[in-house]
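Suppose you are handed only these lines of text.
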Amino acid sequence: MGFTPRVGSIPSSSTMFHINDVRSILRPLSADPRAPASAKAARARSAWTYQPGEGLPALIEALEEKLLRENRIRVRTGSRVMVTAGANMAFMHVILATLDPGDEVILPLPYCFNHEMAVTRASGRPVGVPTDDRYQLRPEALESAITPRTKAIVTITPNNPTGAVFTEEALRDVNEICRRHGIYHIADEVYEYFTYGGTRHFSPGSISGSNDYTQGRVSRRCQSQEPQGLNGKAPEPLR
Ligand SMILES: Cc1ncc(COP(=O)(O)O)c(C=O)c1O
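From them, the structure of the protein bound to pyridoxal-5'-phosphate can be written out as follows.
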């Protein structure tokens, strides 16, 4: 699946271009035993100057390892992992890379307001689709809401604001719908550790063959907190 033309219109960074130039001069210079202390110090300083925009390689490696161990997501060669300053920034990146003005994104109701804001800011249209009386996904209703302008379905599990944990079966259904219609499945998993009792979190990105159209976000480790559903009541665990 492709990106919006907005992505192709971004010029490459001239800052990074010059930084790479400077590094290529400094590297051999500072390795020379006759190099002045100032050249060596300048090289050491490069550790805290501009770094790869997608994140420090060691951090990306650690995240890939976490995705495989905890989420069973095998990131393909060439890594699609990118570090962002929070999940909102990750979502905004995904939306800006995916939507043209007027495109639609399906959000199961009730949804997290920041998703609606991101879609609207990218001149897209958020389309709310009600969940059932236990705040669970209704895959057939989500599919019915797809139009030629739909670019993605978003799932948040465990959910904000309801606290519901979506079943593996429903998430697989939604993922299959996205595959069939050639749209993205954006999986917000920032609360992945907020499951209780026998409830298990499932990552749609682990579905075999879904790499090309499933974008997951597991960007932060949440602090432990009491389970909180609507009206302050803990949501009933799913069986
Ligand atoms: C479901 C969900 N996704 C993303 C965010 C935003 O996360 P961050 O604070 O990492 O930008 C929130 C809000 O805190 C959220 O509830």
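What can we learn from it? Residues 14-31 form the longest helix (18 residues). Residues 84-232 form a domain with the Aspartate Aminotransferase; domain 2 fold (CATH 3.40.640.10).
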